Amino acid sequence: MGNPDEFSRQALPHLDAAHNLAFWIVRNRADAEDVVHDAFLRAFRAFGSFTEGNIRNWLLTIVRNTAYTAMTRRNRGRNVVSIEEAMLERAEPESWAADEHSAEDGLILQEDGRRVRDALAKLAPAFREIIVLREIEELAYDDIARVLGVPIGTVMSRLARARSQLREIYSGRQRGQRDAV
């Protein structure tokens, strides 16, 4: 075990990224909170053995492994999730006024965000997690490779397939909505 103050100083700035990754893997807010709690407890216990490197990658690896362990253990038969609720923290409607957007612009941005989140939720877990790590958490390819424990080539090909599927899901939904109008 390491120094609790040092662990807090280094680990807590990455708490939002941990919650974000956990949520997109387990797709349930309460389960994600449990995963992050368990992961940070495991990380704290192992902090004495963490010598150097990127603590964010180390923590996200622990979060990812904890999330998949929890899913396996629970044999997830349920699939109830409120993406809008989970992403509410990231949506900042009050900033629209500061950016001189009209109320209509704000609603359009909100609807586009909802469509993207809905499309992201439809991706397979391996594709969803790689999109979250790259596009939302903005990790570099080599950092993603470390977090996922795969070669960088796998990261690049999986990311390309994930982006392609995300575009397909999103544009298919767009076409379907236009056809219905």
Describe this structure in words.
- The chain is an all-alpha fold.
- The chain folds into two domains: 1-78, RNA polymerase sigma factor, region 2, helix turn helix motif (Rna Polymerase Sigma Factor, Chain: A), CATH 1.10.1740.10; 102-181, Arc Repressor Mutant, subunit A (Orthogonal Bundle), CATH 1.10.10.10.
- The protein is built from ten helices and no strands.
- The chain has helices at residues 4-11, 15-26, 29-46, 55-74, 83-87, 93-98, 103-122, 125-136, 141-148, 152-180.
- Helix 4 packs across helix 9 (141-148) and helix 7 packs across helix 10.
- The longest helix has 29 residues, at 152-180.
- It is globular and about 50 Å long.
Return the CATH class of the largest domain.
Mainly Alpha
Please tally the helical runs, counting DSSP H or I stretches of 4 or more residues.
Answer: 10
N-to-C span: 60 Å
From the 3D structure, determine the CATH topology of the largest domain. Arc Repressor Mutant, subunit A
Largest sheet: none
CATH superfamily of the largest domain: Winged helix-like DNA-binding domain superfamily/Winged helix DNA-binding domain
Total domains, how many?
2
CATH architecture of the largest domain: Orthogonal Bundle
Mean pLDDT: 78
Helix content percent band:
over 70%
- What integer value in Å does the Rg equal? 18 Å
Low-confidence parts: 76-101
Instruction: Name the beta content range.
Output: under 5%
Structural class: mainly alpha
In short:
Helix content is 76%, strand content 0%.
List the helices and strands and how they pair.
Layout: H1 4-11, H2 15-26, H3 29-46, H4 55-74, H5 83-87, H6 93-98, H7 103-122, H8 125-136, H9 141-148, H10 152-180
Helix pairs in contact: 2-3, 2-4, 2-8, 3-4, 4-9, 7-10, 8-10, 9-10
